[in-house]
Every structure is written in structure tokens, then in C-alpha cells.
Design brief:
The protein is α/β, with parallel strands linked by helices and 461 residues long. Helix content is 44%, strand content 15%. The protein has helices at 2-9, 22-34, 60-63, 68-78, 89-95, 98-118, 120-131, 138-152, 158-169, 184-187, 212-225, 243-251, 279-284, 297-309, 331-337, 362-371, 383-388, 391-397, 417-420, 438-444, 449-460; strands spanning 13-18, 40-45, 156-157, 176-180, 205-207, 229-235, 257-261, 290-292, 315-318, 323-324, 342-345, 353-357, 375-379, 405-412, 425-429. The strands form four sheets. The protein has a six-stranded parallel sheet, with helices on both faces. A five-stranded mixed sheet has the order 11-13-12-14-15. α9 (158-169) packs across α14 and α11 (212-225) packs parallel to α12.
């Protein structure tokens, strides 16, 4: 009753029906569709386990079988005389839509054939988008852009590198549909050609408002519909509000791109409520989800290329608010970024230890590398992709006989033990953050070049 009165006060049409009465539900649905001036709430009152004489209305009929005796009583109460698993002919006929579906499909195919004959270019484009295939020249365009980014060698925030990648790649991908939960100006997911659907029905960007879960769930639906590649964006901390929808995109193996910025304690003065610590590990622990945390403009561009190419599941792209130094690479190293982990800096002399880092902490690893002998730096922007590589490649990057390993990431430490082993060290977070400038926080929590150097010296002593 409270629900009914509340929605009536909102100006909705409210219809209450017996939720076990199919005819009443149909009538309510017709009435709801007929009401075009305001929304309709249909309240279907039901009784759990209806028909079970001894268990209806009780939790007993929800989490456990009724039992043979109660099943017999329920069949009697409902007047159901058919044998188990037998569907009466009239019921089957009422639900059988094969003929109707075949007719509808034939009519659609006939209409589309006529359309294709008159508009062959548009028909081919529609078929391409519905199939989920990217334009034939996409990889070449993406690689050309990555080469430009490498030549520029910019030191910028990876959220800005992400925006630049969108600006370069999306104009040739009309199927991309972006959006953000009220933070488009901060997560930099708007690009020059982005048009809000609220202003232009043919637009390509949705301003979702403060509704991270709704945004992500809608993106799942868009991906399931087909013909679009949705990306949605918010701060990494606010992934928590969308967590079950993120899990569903992975469970359903849908190409949804989840963009998360402001990725660490580097967020600074906003404090622990806004500083993600355990979220990256949560994302990496989600089956069938690729999680990228790039360290500079090149890795950010490649992460976008990978996400757009990946048709068998979702991708999380995690970007920084603060500027991150550009890392110099050979062409071979650039090609290896897509493998999720690669040797960014070779060891000087005999290999004795390995530093593994992601995102903003790669620069710390590189600074430590400059002070050490026999140490290589492995950048691992996407661990999920790295572990998919063949054993020979993984061994070449992380030789199994080198047990002196240090991982560094401004996030929860527990994820990295599988790469460094029990003899290794992990430099990162085991508590929530604090409110202070980013530089002070890194010093306070011991995520520093000095800490990396000290850890390497300790395990190689």
C-alpha cells in the first residue's frame, strides 16, 4: 500500500492485479501501453509456492524440494493430472511460436533483401556492425596511431591519453556508443565528435547521471542487442556501485568496455573514500574480464585497441589522474605490449632479479632499475593477457629460475604473490588511503623508488 501511494504521488498510473491471473496481467499490460502521458507501475501480488497446501507462503518452498508427499498434494490442489514432464497439447500449442517466428524471420529477410538491393553499401555496413566485426582497416589505423603516440613521447595522465585514443580511433567506428555516470568532464571520455543522445537521437554518447549500476547494466543490454560497442566510464572507486553489472558483462561474455579513472591513492586529497585499494584485485579476479592498467600513452593506446578488438568478453581500462612519464620502447617492445606483460628494461649484466609494475608505479620501477645491476623491469599492464601467452614467452619474460622478484603497484598487494612467489616482495597497499597530496601519500605508504631498491637488495643479498 505504501508503494502504491508513493507512486501515485509521483504522478504514475498504478495498476494492482493478481499475479497468478494471466488474463489480468495481460489487461494491465495493455492498459500500461495505452497510457502515453505518464509511466505505469503494475503491482502483481503473488503467493510463493501457491498450490502447496502445507508450504505455500513459507520459505520452505523456496530453498528446498517440496518432497513427494507434498508434490502429490499440490498436484491434487491444482487439479493437475498429467504425468511428470508431460506438457498438455493445448498448453504446448499456446506457447509454440515456431511458425510465427519463421514467418516473421522470412518477412524480415525479404524486407532486408529489398533494402540491400536498393542500398547495398548501407546494408553491408549494417551486417558488419551486427556481426561485431570491426572495419577491415581498423588494425592498420590503430597501429599508425600508436606509432604517432610513440613518436610524440608525451608525459600526460593516462586518462588524457585515453581521450586522445578515443579521438583518433572512434571517428572510424560509428558503432561505438560512449557514456559516463555524471563524470564525463573528469574521466575524459568525451571526444570532439561525441554528441549526447539527449540532444540528438542519432548521437553517440549517453550522459547517464549518477547511476553507475544502471549505466553498466544498460551497456550490457546494448551489447546483447548487437550492432554497438558500448563503453561506460566513472572513477575506479565507483566501480563498486556497478559491481554486479560488471560481473554480468563478464558472465555473459559481452564486449563492454568499462573505463575507470582516478585509479589509486594518487587521487590525493579526496581521501580514502575516493581512493581505490582493493578494486583492481576485484576486477582481475573476475573471470573473462581483461583488466588493463597502462603506464603511459603508448600502453593506453594499445589498451584501447585491445579492448575494441576483443569480442569474446569485456575489458576494464584503468587510467590515472596524474601525469605519468613516457617510457621509451623498441618496435618489438611495442608489439609485445598487447601480450599483457613484457620486458620494458633489460638487466645490466647477469640477470639477478625482476621488478614487475603497472600504471603509475612503472616509473618507480624504472628509477630503481637505473640504480641497480642485474635487474630487469617487466611492465604488466594486463595480467590476464600475459597468462594466456605460450609458456615459452612467459618464461622469456619471467624466467622461472629467477626467484628474486618484486612487484610494485599502488593497490592491494595480495594479487601479486602468484607472480613473485613466497620468496618475493610486494610493495603496495594493505590499508585504506589517507587524505594528502599524492606525492606525500606515496611517501607515507612506502610506495617509492627507495622502497623498491631496498627490497631488491634484501632479496638478492
Amino acid at each position: 500500500d505504501d508503494t502504491e501511494q508513493r507512486f501515485l504521488a509521483y504522478g504514475w498510473q498504478v495498476i494492482k492485479v493478481d499475479g497468478h491471473d494471466a488474463a489480468a496481467i495481460r489487461e494491465a499490460t495493455v492498459a500500461a501501453k495505452a497510457e502515453t502521458a505518464k509511466p505505469t507501475l503494475v503491482i502483481c501480488k503473488t503467493v510463493i509456492g501457491l498450490g502447496s497446501p502445507n508450504k505455500q507462503g513459507k520459505e520452505d518452498c523456496h530453498g528446498a524440494p517440496l518432497g513427494n508427499d507434498e508434490i502429490a498434494l499440490t498436484r491434487e490442489a491444482l487439479g493437475w493430472k498429467e504425468e511428470a514432464f508431460v506438457i498438455p497439447a493445448d498448453v504446448y500449442a499456446a506457447w509454440n511460436a515456431k511458425d510465427k517466428g519463421a514467418q516473421s524471420e522470412a518477412a524480415w529477410n525479404e524486407t532486408f533483401a529489398a533494402y540491400a538491393a536498393k542500398y547495398p553499401t548501407e546494408a553491408a555496413e549494417l551486417k558488419r556492425r551486427l556481426s561485431g566485426e570491426l572495419p577491415a582497416d581498423f588494425v592498420a589505423k590503430a597501429d599508425a596511431y600508436i606509432a604517432e603516440v610513440n613518436a610524440k613521447a608525451e608525459t600526460i595522465a593516462t586518462r588524457k591519453a585515453s581521450q586522445n585514443a578515443l579521438q583518433a580511433l572512434v571517428p572510424s567506428l560509428p558503432e561505438v556508443l560512449g557514456g559516463s555516470a555524471d563524470l564525463a568532464g573528469s574521466n575524459l571520455t568525451l571526444w570532439k565528435g561525441a554528441q549526447g543522445v539527449q540532444d540528438n537521437p542519432a548521437g553517440n554518447y549517453v550522459h547517464y547521471g549518477v547511476r553507475e549500476f544502471g549505466m553498466t547494466a544498460i551497456a550490457n543490454g546494448v551489447a546483447l542487442h548487437g550492432g554497438f560497442i558500448p563503453y561506460v566510464a566513472t572513477f575506479l572507486m565507483f566501480m563498486e556501485y556497478a559491481r554486479n553489472a560488471v560481473r554480468m558483462s563478464a558472465l555473459m561474455k559481452q564486449r563492454v568496455i568499462h573505463v575507470y579513472t582516478h585509479d589509486s591513492i594518487g587521487l590525493g586529497e579526496d581521501g580514502p573514500t575516493h581512493q581505490p585499494v582493493e578494486q583492481i584485485a576485484s576486477l582481475r579476479g573476475t573471470p573473462n574480464l581483461n583488466t588493463w592498467r597502462p603506464c603511459d600513452t603508448v600502453e593506453a593506446s594499445i589498451s584501447w585497441k585491445s579492448a575494441l578488438l576483443r569480442s569474446e568478453g569485456p575489458t576494464a581500462l584503468i587510467f590515472s589522474r596524474q601525469n605519468l612519464p613516457f617510457q621509451t620502447r623498441t618496435q618489438a617492445q611495442i608489439e609485445n605490449v598487447a601480450k599483457g606483460g613484457y620486458v620494458l628494461a633489460e638487466e645490466k649484466g647477469e640477470l639477478k632479479a625482476i621488478i614487475i609494475a603497472t600504471g603509475s608505479e612503472v616509473s618507480l620501477a624504472m628509477e630503481a632499475h637505473a640504480q641497480l645491476e642485474g635487474v630487469r623491469v617487466v611492465s604488466m599492464p594486463c595480467a590476464e593477457e600475459f597468462v594466456k601467452q605460450d609458456a615459452a614467452y612467459r618464461e622469456a619474460v619471467l624466467p622461472s629460475h629467477i626467484r628474486a622478484r618484486v612487484a610494485v603497484e599502488a593497490a592491494h598487494v595480495d594479487y601479486w604473490w602468484k607472480f613473485v612467489g613466497l620468496d618475493g616482495r610486494v610493495i603496495g597497499m594493505t590499508t585504506y588511503g589517507e587524505s594528502a597530496p599524492a606525492k606525500d601519500l606515496y611517501q607515507y605508504f612506502g610506495i617509492t623508488t627507495e622502497a623498491v631498491v631496498a627490497a631488491i637488495k634484501e632479496i638478492t643479498a
